[in-house]
Write a structure and sequence with these properties.
Blueprint: H1 15-39, E1 52-53, E2 57-59, E3 63-65, E4 68-75, E5 80-85, E6 90-94, H2 100-113, H3 144-165, E7 176-178, E8 183-193, H4 206-212, E9 215-223, E10 231-237, H5 243-246, E11 251-252, E12 257-261, H6 262-267, H7 271-290
Antiparallel strand pairs: 1-2, 2-4, 3-4, 4-5, 5-6, 7-8, 8-9, 9-10, 10-12, 11-12
Helix pairs in contact: 1-2
Length: 297
């Protein structure tokens, strides 16, 4: 006889209570993501640059290099950035209050000690204030308890998005963490070419957006903004006529996308069912209105 697993409460974290840590951690993830991008073979829609939720935090997964593979993992339990190589090499960078410049230097030193010297664009993307990493002494906050709680939010979101992903038989992305906007994302594709994306993300070349949005899609995810405790989102590109009206229970006219506050999910009697309803409703609207030939499983 097996027992039903006991659902753990969804962790609560007000954005206002950890905004400084969030902004610092965002930049740290950009450094690690750019290191992965320096070595990983390109994959469509930039899927080769992302991070993934792990049993300890966020990881690059195994990244190839000329002498084997390496991995960088944010450990939000012991608050370390682990740098490991397939030949047994390992270094750690402590996650604690420190500037982006210090974290950047320590991370590059840890990599160099293991024979890795990545060439990256040494400044952030998709943020308004793109201070070069080596010069950023402005962002210094790190609240370990908040970082741990954010990771726990990501794990809950990842579990539901992964279940939702299993319902679709067409081309779909992994559930992965994009460090540009600091969001956990999952995307479905119709298979049709999309019109060129207009761009507009701060400090991000239009070519990046053109590749990311080269094909018609419906995208979903979670990010630590958009609500008092973060928010889930959904949108279609290109947005089909009538999408806002069809999804008016969720549609935000200012953002031009659907939004479900994290706190609404966490407060629900059945958080997973509430989130799945949002994901399924917004996807069905996009697929129906754009007349996708692949509508699900």
């Amino acid at each position: 006889m097996t027992s039903e697993p006991i659902a753990r409460p969804w962790p609560r974290l007000r954005v206002a209570d950890w905004a400084d840590t969030r902004d610092t951690l965002h930049l740290w993830t950009q450094i690690v993501g750019k290191i992965r991008m320096a070595y990983a073979p390109p994959v469509n829609h930039w899927w080769h640059v992302t991070l993934y939720p792990s049993a300890r935090g966020l990881t690059t997964s195994a990244v190839p290099h000329p002498d084997g593979v390496f991995e960088l993992e944010f450990d939000f339990v012991d608050h370390q950035l682990h740098v490991r190589t397939s030949d047994g090499g390992a270094r750690d960078v402590r996650l604690e209050p420190k500037s982006v410049a210090t974290f950047y230097g320590e991370t590059l030193d840890a990599l160099a000690a293991l024979g890795l010297r990545p060439r990256i664009h040494p400044a952030p993307n998709e943020v308004e204030l793109a201070i070069p990493f080596a010069e950023d002494t402005q962002h210094t906050a790190y609240d370990g308890a908040a970082a741990h709680r954010f990771w726990q939010q990501l794990l809950h979101a990842d579990r539901v998005l992964t279940r939702f992903r299993s319902e679709f038989v067409g081309k779909a992305s992994p559930v992965h963490f994009f460090w540009g906007a600091m969001d956990l994302a999952y995307t479905r594709f119709s298979g049709r070419i999309a019109p060129p994306h207009p761009g507009g993300a701060p400090n991000c070349p239009p070519s990046v957006m053109h590749e990311g949005y080269s094909h018609e899609l419906a995208s979903f995810g979670f990010w630590p903004g958009g609500g008092a405790e973060g928010a889930f989102y959904a949108y279609a590109y290109p947005e089909p006529p009538g999408y806002g009206e069809r999804t008016k229970a969720y549609y935000d006219e200012k953002l031009n996308e659907c939004v479900l506050p994290y706190e609404t999910v966490a407060d629900a009697a059945d958080p997973e069912a509430t989130l799945l309803e949002f994901l399924r409703t917004t996807y069905t609207a996009a697929a129906d209105l754009a007349r996708w030939e692949v509508a699900g499983s």
